[in-house]
Structures are given as C-alpha cells and as structure tokens.
Amino acid sequence: MNIIITGGAGFIGSHVVDRYLKAGHSVAVIDNLSTGSVKNLNPRAKFYKLDLKNHSQLDKIFKREKPEIVNHHAAQAEVRRSVDDPIFDAQTNIIGGLNILHCCVKYKVKKIIYANTGGALYGAAPSAKLPVREDYPIKPESPYGMSKYTFENYLELYSKLFVLKYTSLRYANIYGPRQNPQGEAGVVAIFIGLMLANQSPKIFGDGRQTRDYLFVADVAQANVLALTRARNQKINLGTAQQTSVNQIYKMIAAEIGFTGKPIYSPAIKGEIRRASQNWDLAKKKLGWSPKVDLATGIKKTLKKKHSRPDLDNPFFALVN
Ligand SMILES: NC(=O)c1ccc[n+]([C@@H]2O[C@H](COP(=O)([O-])OP(=O)(O)OC[C@H]3O[C@@H](n4cnc5c(N)ncnc54)[C@H](O)[C@@H]3O)[C@@H](O)[C@H]2O)c1
C-alpha cells in the first residue's frame, strides 16, 4: 500500500515507518523536524520536510503520492508548551490535522490512523476506575489534551460526512529507542540519558506517582494491525500495569550500574497521581496485546542505538 506517515522522523512515528516498510509498503514521511530528526528516518522512506500548516504543499504531496492510508503522528506533543502557547498547539494539532483531513478527502484516502493520547484525555481517574477504559469520561486538563481530543472528534465527524475510515489509538506512556531525552514526558529516556552521563536524575514529589509504560515496538505493531482492522474505533494502547517513578529509577539504575541517589524536588502542581489503561478493546478489535514487559523494554532501549547513521536521502527536502 502507499502510505503517508506524518511525524515519521519522530520517536514513535519512525518505528511505525520501519514496520510498514518491513511489511512491504511504500512509505512517504512528512515532518518539519521540529522535534524529530533525520537520524531517525529510514532511508528507504521518501521524505518531505514540511510543516502540516502548509496546506498548498501538503496538497501537492498527496496528489503525487496518492496514499491509500495516512498515519498521523506529527503533533505539538508537549503539555507544558501547550499551556504556555495554546494557540500554537491548536494550530499544529487541530488546524494542521484539518489540513491533513482535507487532503484525505480530496485524494480519496481510505483510512487515517491517528496517534492519540490516553493520559492527557482521561485526567485523574480514581483508583477504582484504573486501568481506565475507553468509555471513561474524557476531561482534558491541558490545551494539548484538548487539541488531541478535538482532532479525534473531527475524525469521527469526517467518517460520517465522507468516505474516510479512522482508527484512533490512545497511547499510554511510550518509551524505547530514539526517544528524545530532552523531551518533557519521556522519563525512561531522561533517566537513561542522565545516568549514562553519571548525573543524578530529579524526581518530582515522592516518586510514588504511577504511569503505564508501553514499549514502542508494541505501539508499532498496533499501527500495523490498524491498517486493516478496527474501523472507526477509539482504542487504548497500554499495559494495564502501574509503575512508579521510583521503580523506574531503580530498574534503570540497576541495569546501568548507576549508584547515585535521585534528587527529590517539589511535586509538579496538578500532576496526576496514578494512571493506567485497559487494553481489552485493543485485543478485541485489533487482536493486539502488549508483548514487551518493562524490564525487557528497558534492556532493549539501552542496547539499541538511539539513532541511525546520517545517510544521503535523495528525497530529502523534495518539496521545500
Ligand atoms: N510519547 C508518548 O508517550 C506519547 C503518548 C501519547 C501520545 N503520543 C502522540 O504520539 C505522536 C508522536 O509522539 P512522539 O513521542 O513520537 O513525539 P516526537 O516529538 O518524537 O514526534 C513528533 C513528530 O512530529 C513532527 N512535527 C511536529 N510538529 C509538526 C508540524 N507542524 N509539521 C510537521 N511535522 C511536525 C516532529 O518533528 C516530530 O518528528 C504525537 O502525536 C503524540 O501526541 C505520544
């Protein structure tokens, strides 16, 4: 199949690119490299360096590539930035997303697969509701959660107005090779980066706050399954497990042989105490289950190179 992947030079999107190419699909990546890197890019993918907000150039790419599937991973993905600049967040995640949707309809794309968030949608669910299911009330607590949710609503609307199917995958906390240690959310990448540099990571609060950590290869597999399954569904991808920041710290420190103590700092105001996501629907609709446990995932993250070698890509900056 001809597939366009937005955000394919980013952490998760680049793993999806690899899996689609391995499955024999033809892949074109659209990415403005704002947080992604050419080093993540599979040299067998075509690459268009472009911002989603550039509608006329997007149109040209769709016209040329004639994709059957669009996999949409590009986003303004930082909660803090969304609070500081909600307009920029909405311009990327909503208007940029609508530009993609407009091209999908115009060029008769069959299906769009969307990388949504679970964590930023459900808010602080009480312990009794964890692991949270898809029908748990959605209450975004940041402009990022709101913009990601808004675009999911557009997908549902477009599936009714036009002949365009969708699958929205609501991710838990994803970790693995190529995650940017400079990013705000990737505690595994941040801890690994600091411990390898023999520096003590900071832990905000008492470190007993929990998250649901899902390995990136499991996410890529769900994106493969979604090519042909789970029509017009919103599906959680998580492990249904909770792991505390203190536990993560200990696991990574043990793996690296780091003996320093964490620097405990004041808790971040408004930070959710516990999070985990039920994946029964993913099993039912996609035939998916998480395969890589956290200990194995951390080992794999440490073993794999974080980037690819720089390669001359003949398609680089084809549009700009
Ligand atoms: N990492 C997680 O734990 C997590 C959790 C939930 C949802 N998600 C979603 O998964 C997707 C990928 O996240 P990631 O962690 O790989 O982040 P990432 O920053 O590594 O990837 C995002 C990619 O989008 C590109 N991009 C950003 N704005 C763009 C624009 N205007 N035009 C074109 N390209 C643009 C970036 O350059 C980058 O390559 C995002 O949609 C994010 O909301 C991630």
UniProtKB/TrEMBL annotation:
<comment type="similarity">
    <text>Belongs to the NAD(P)-dependent epimerase/dehydratase family.</text>
</comment>
<feature type="domain" description="NAD-dependent epimerase/dehydratase">
    <location>
        <begin position="3"/>
        <end position="238"/>
    </location>
</feature>
<dbReference type="InterPro" id="IPR036291">
    <property type="entry name" value="NAD(P)-bd_dom_sf"/>
</dbReference>
<dbReference type="Pfam" id="PF01370">
    <property type="entry name" value="Epimerase"/>
</dbReference>
<protein>
    <submittedName>
        <fullName>UDP-glucose 4-epimerase</fullName>
    </submittedName>
</protein>
<dbReference type="InterPro" id="IPR001509">
    <property type="entry name" value="Epimerase_deHydtase"/>
</dbReference>
